What does this fold into?
Amino acid sequence: MTQDQLLILLILSIAVAMFLHGRWRHDMVATGALLACVLAGLIPPQEAFSGFAHPAVVTVACVLVLSRGLQVSGTVDALAARLLPARAGILLSLAALVGLGALLSGFMNNVGAMALLMPVAMQLATRLELPPGRVLMPLAFGTILGGMTTMIGTPPNLIVSGFRAQTGAGSFAMFDFTPIGLAVAVVGTLFIVLLGWRLVPAREKASTEGFETGAYVTEVRVVPDSKAAGLFLREIEARLDEAGAQIIGLVRNEVRMTAPQSSRKVLAGDILVIEADVEALPEVLSTLGLQLEEAGSSRADAAQQDGEDAEQDGQHKEKGKGPRDPRDKGETVLDEGTQEDEKGAARADAEVTLMELVVRPEAVLIGRSARDLSLRTRYGLNLLAVSRNGNRSKSRLRTLKIQAGDLLLMQGPLEALTEFAADSGCVPLAERELRIPDRRKAWTAGAIMLFAVGGAALGLLPAAISFALGVLASMALRTIPLRSVYESIDWPVIVLLAALIPVAGAMESSGTADLIAHALLDGVAQGNAIFALTLVLIVTMFLSDLMNNAATAAVMCPIAIGTAAALGVNADAFLMAVAIGASCAFLTPIGHQNNTLILGPGGFGFGDYWRLGLPLEVLVAAVSIPLLVLVWPL
It folds into this structure.
């Protein structure tokens, strides 16, 4: 054993121990290992950060951005609304949910797919009267299984593909992972749905402390192509009930009916007054193809309406009956002339966000309405909904007089929202992650992802280039807010991958990978290729349960390649074993981010995962080993 081999083994051993200890972030440990290798002379300084240019790293970042586009555009919400049954039993509901999670994870980041479907899983658990964990854990494991089916489904697949390219054999194609990954995903999903969910411990949801905003009252318009047009109110109420929403009024021809009869037919152009939790609004809108009334109004219409209102207010003020204006107290507000128009024009192209504001007792807008405040013409803002301690008003949303303690759900540019909060004396509570369905953007985001996948799958472009073009198209067509592009990238994972790729190269160049491979073969596998393949799979599974799956793949790939070379067999089967093993993190909450996501909502403890995870890992190994030998002959 040479000095370089001793040094790289020492550095790797310390890094793995730190990974397992979990006190330090994975990207910190990986960066430390990289710099230690540079200082030890194992990696040339000019190549230290070459990992950031690696195609696998670029592809991971681009897939995360495109996945974010599918989330915020409402593509996944629309797909879930169409594919998930509303009134099915436990088995069919679980099969649809876990199957959808696995399907989505094949083409978008599986953590994103899990985050999107978690609210659906919680609602399903409530409807089926199951502990939340018995729906959340099957969904988490299903999304992990689905990531095995394509090259972009999970970072380990991209890393494995990159290591294959370094051997001179070229990278794996988009669907080279599908024969084995799909078989494992199908068998695993069937096991979870038919039997596995019963093995999940019945835990109560962990208590949560936080600010409960309650139900909002908002107005939604029935557009001409809405599914609600032509339906009776009772039919619409039945559908909205599944989303936890209810109709409390109807507006037709500017006349509001506070208790419309359930036998009344809804027409295009009607406005429904709905009470719903803010998290349920996207489902309410996508279920029936409705449009938020205030969000759908144009600025030109708002200016015309506000102009008429201002004239009326002026007449009232002459009689001493006008609403209180901030200027009466000396507060600074925007002028209504050229300065407003310039600010409005500048904000017209700004990226829109949602924010909750609470009205303080001394706020200057108390007793005034959105129309009185000219929110759109002065600030470029929309008042989407109001929450008022369970009390309902008979006024239209734009004419509702604001009271102290009201919660306002506002839409507009972040700068304008902040300015309005400061001017009006409101307190911002939170920037809301609320996805308002946009059919055009949903179709556009889906088409961009389809073309990006197609370009890589058909070999028209390298995967990194194809997905980078997809990101550029998403930014140009605004399917994802520009400020969210870099926020959607999981930078610790990117740094982890970029740091460990040169370290893995040092393992290979120093001969350390071959040394470990020979030790495994001589000491354990006894020269048997199938036994060595099984050993590589099991060791990768074990490490993936205890440390980051991307780090596991980066560490095990050189060993897998060295083992295959020592045996004189095809390395593809061994690399595929690493890909499968790195994705099978089912025993602990720290092995995969999806497992961590359900830890609190499911009320789980560290030792609750193995009850379903252990038999699932045994099943995955039993299915994958024969298929590895069959699909990728040794």
Remarks:
- Residues 540 and 565 are 18 Å apart (CA to CA).
- The beta strands are 215-221, 246-252, 255-257, 271-277, 291-292, 352-359, 382-387, 407-413, 426-432.
